[in-house]
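Usage example:
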Amino acid sequence: MSFSPLIRQLIDALRTLPGVGQKTAQRMALQLLERDRSGGSRLALALTQAMEGVGHCRLCRTLTEDDLCPQCADMRRDDTLLCVVEGPMDVYAVEQTGYRGRYFVLKGHLSPLDGLGPEAIGIPQLMTRIAEQGTFAEVILATNPTVEGEATAHYIAQLLSNKGLIASRIAHGVPLGGELELVDGGTLAHSFSGRRPITL
Amino acid sequence: MSFSPLIRQLIDALRTLPGVGQKTAQRMALQLLERDRSGGSRLALALTQAMEGVGHCRLCRTLTEDDLCPQCADMRRDDTLLCVVEGPMDVYAVEQTGYRGRYFVLKGHLSPLDGLGPEAIGIPQLMTRIAEQGTFAEVILATNPTVEGEATAHYIAQLLSNKGLIASRIAHGVPLGGELELVDGGTLAHSFSGRRPITL
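Running the assembly step on the lines above writes:
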């Protein structure tokens, strides 16, 4: 197995992409070189422009090259609702639900073992954002349903409890289209404790 | 779902990679932007250098930025053996077998329906290469075990039959580690017709 240096360098660089191992990187590199040079050059340009140009939104801290992201710049959204998520990808997931309030993007979740305290993930900036905006009535904590995500949600809820704001947590339960027998016990327990009366 | 323009452009560009759809491209783009900007810039540089710098080997026509690829430049390889494959990726697959002869890389296989005749895939250049080198005794046809690959191998074998060269085809049969009951009938038929006496 001996690739020429430039091809080897390209394969190594492609492996920095998440989910791309040696074989996939080889296939990508040779495919681009054999069949789609213009696509490869376009990708190089897009990467350069994005890596140099994209920063963070001044208000919600999601990724954008502008001062404000499209969600924060949209004047028609509900200024009484704030949704707190762990990362930019979560914003796009929540957008699919039809939610049209505001966002705040943390830098991940609290993780004391990794040395990630409230400052590291941007909780002080979240509290500043809430205080400066002054219009939020409810803060929806949409961190991941993991131990760290739950801890992060609880930490923020405690900070908010003195400020007269409703702090809510997204519901945990059985996902649509699943089968009860395949759902783990913890999730099923959540779906029981979170049960609601059927309104006819 | 509204990404800012630079991020959208990056996601679209990432989708030119083989096997990368919308979701994977989003994950790749946001991961690079959030956690690995230097990796993204390195990838952009590697892409630019490879797309502009990599051409084809003068002798075997595989991908390389040099005049000769590492396989053709290696003086210690066997000049009596020539292995014909459909693409550069196949060279690296065949190298794993321990084969240490020479290579010739076609541009795919004969496909009359797609307008790909002998000229389009480089068969005239293969014949020129064989004539100019003058040392080959055997040409191993290692095109893919598909209908088109077989047709391509037969076409080349016919051209070679007048030139006093041995044209051989790689063996088809049951792959190692498989189970007979899972092998298709065509493959099993090949493994029967290609059976060999056991030498003790």
